[in-house]
């Protein structure tokens, strides 16, 4: 059988652990938790009290459902999956389709994600005949 723990030493260690706590009620609760941990851990003088609960973090869950992307790029990717870009579409047509799907995004907020998807070789961007010096691009599947 194992040796009985030195309760006086464990109590002294728990008192030292909570010495800096000013609030008497909080100090009592902290003392009880520390003493419980010391008793459960066998009373090792070098062991620090373990947490009984997992620490709270600000990290989001890592499941695929929790990582569902939102924003203009994600909405455009949905359109790619739905074969919207089978034929060439201008940025105005992309904006109109997004509005039909309930996403009201300004045209100026679409050019960046469209260019990014072109760089990632998801979409292809081709210059189309624009009027005057105005450049018009059309986007289609790569």
**What is the mean predicted local confidence, pLDDT?**
81
The CATH class of the largest domain, by name, is Mainly Alpha
Judged by helices, strands and strand pairing, the structural class is mainly alpha
- What is the domain total for the residues? 2
Biggest sheet: strands side by side, in what order?
1-3-2
Could you state the order of secondary-structure elements as H and E? HHHEHHEE
Which SSEs are present, and which pair or pack?
Blueprint: H1 7-17, H2 24-40, H3 72-81, E1 89-90, H4 91-100, H5 111-119, E2 123-128, E3 136-141
Antiparallel strand pairs: 1-3, 2-3
Description:
With 142 residues, the chain is mainly alpha-helical. Helices cover 40% and strands 10% of the residues. The protein contains 5 helices and 3 strands; from the N terminus they run αααβααββ. The chain has helices at residues 7-17, 24-40, 72-81, 91-100, 111-119; strands at residues 89-90, 123-128, 136-141. Helix 1 (7-17) packs across helix 2 (24-40) and helix 3 (72-81) crosses helix 5 (111-119). The relative contact order is 0.10.
């Amino acid at each position: 059988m194992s040796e009985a723990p030195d309760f006086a030493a464990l109590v002294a260690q728990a008192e030292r652990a909570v010495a800096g706590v000013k609030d008497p009620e909080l100090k009592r609760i902290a003392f009880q938790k520390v003493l419980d941990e010391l008793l459960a851990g066998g009373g090792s003088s070098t062991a620090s009290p373990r947490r009984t609960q997992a620490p709270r973090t600000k990290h989001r869950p890592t499941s695929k459902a929790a990582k569902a992307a939102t924003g203009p790029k994600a909405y455009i990717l949905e359109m790619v999956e739905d074969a919207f870009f089978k034929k060439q579409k201008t940025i105005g047509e992309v904006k109109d389709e997004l509005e039909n799907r309930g996403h009201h995004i300004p045209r100026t907020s679409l050019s960046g994600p469209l260019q990014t998807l072109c760089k990632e070789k998801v979409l292809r961007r081709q210059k189309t005949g624009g009027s005057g010096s105005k450049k018009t691009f059309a986007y289609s599947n790569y």
